[in-house]
Specification:
alpha/beta; Rossmann fold; eight-stranded mixed β-sheet; six-stranded parallel β-sheet; single chain; 2 domains
């Protein structure tokens, strides 16, 4: 019998809860041996809820006492770089929530260190591995809608205007782009690759973070993407992929468990493929991590380092244009 893969969880937010709940759905023996959190109270509560034997609020203490195979970094964006670096230095593989880091330079450092240490590193862009996205890629590769010409995608969430809310806190990497806009940008890059031209405008708060961001990515081939993120309104819009022969819509909420995939081929009507799976869906990216570890890889072919670097390069340019900076971390 194989020894269980031992995990450290860094972060005690909602995504960390979902991640642990989905671990059992991989069908592979796994064990969470420790959790790292910010406050003593919340970290202890998280550990007790999920029956985790050890909890820490200090990274050095954790690394001194805990032996693990892989760390899942689900802390606020601005902590990703330092925490992932610390785990890699210790020889621990890393699955790091999106965005991998605040900027491309930090991500480059992580990639270099993972190669130096021979440790696995992957950005937790979990939707990359969902059956819904896999199905969309199959439909496109089969030529169902012909050559793709346009992608339209938005993610909007009316966040509470609470001064303690991370969405509006620059020190925690707040703003709509890093938290929400990364999903539409990801979809565009997955389908089109790196754009030739980027145009962006944003609406900023007094703290200098973006409440709303609109992006236009253009390609010399004539393809383009119209993307949006917002903390000022909720959305129920599908992601729309237009081709020369038809349209694919990933129905709301397209960025997680979509209600279905609608395919319209011009002149032939519409077909809706339902989407359904157990749990939240984080076990699909976990299965990819486990597959790569078993194969001795330091990156995933489906979510490689080069893609994470390209994603952050685009995000850096958008932030430059809308004038959003995280000075204390860049």
């Amino acid at each position: 019998m194989h020894q269980p893969v031992k995990w450290i969880i860094s972060g005690t937010g909602s995504i960390a809860h979902s991640f642990i709940r989905d671990l059992s759905l991989t069908g592979v023996p796994q064990e969470v041996v420790a959790v790292l959190g910010h406050s003593e109270e919340s970290t202890k509560e998280f550990a007790e809820q999920h029956q985790i034997p050890a909890y820490y609020t200090d990274m050095d203490e954790l690394l001194l006492h805990v032996k693990a195979d892989v760390a899942y970094v689900a802390s606020p964006h601005t902590l990703h770089h330092a925490q992932a670096m610390a785990f890699l230095e210790k020889g621990i593989h890393v699955l790091c929530e999106k965005p991998m880091t605040i900027n491309r330079e930090q991500c480059t450092q992580l990639v270099q260190l993972s190669k130096e240490k021979g440790r696995f590193l992957m950005e937790g862009m979990w939707i990359r591995f969902l059956p819904s996205i896999t199905r969309v890629l199959e439909l496109i590769n089969d030529g169902v809608i012909g050559k793709i010409t346009t992608v339209k995608a938005s993610m909007r969430y009316k966040a509470p205007r609470d001064p303690d809310n991370r969405y509006f806190d620059p020190e925690l990497g707040g703003g709509s782009l890093l938290d929400l806009g990364i999903y539409p940008v990801f979809l565009s890059l997955l389908l089109f690759g790196k754009p030739d031209t980027i145009k962006a405008i944003g609406t900023l708060t007094e703290e200098g973070i973006d409440e709303e961001c609109s992006m236009l990515l253009h390609y010399r081939s004539g393809q383009h993407a119209v993307l949006e993120s917002s903390l000022r309104a909720n959305t129920d819009l599908p992601a729309e992929i237009t081709g020369e022969k038809g349209v694919i819509k990933i129905l709301d909420p397209w960025y997680e468990k979509a209600t279905g995939i609608e395919v319209e081929v011009y002149g032939q009507g519409k077909i809706v493929y339902p989407c359904s799976w157990e749990g939240h869906g984080l076990h699909y990216e976990t299965s990819e991590v486990l597959r790569c570890l078993h194969a001795g890889k330091n990156e995933s072919e489906q979510m490689p380092h080069a893609f994470s670097l390209m994603l952050l390069e685009v995000m850096d340019e958008v932030r430059r244009q809308i004038k959003v900076t995280y000075d204390m971390y860049e």
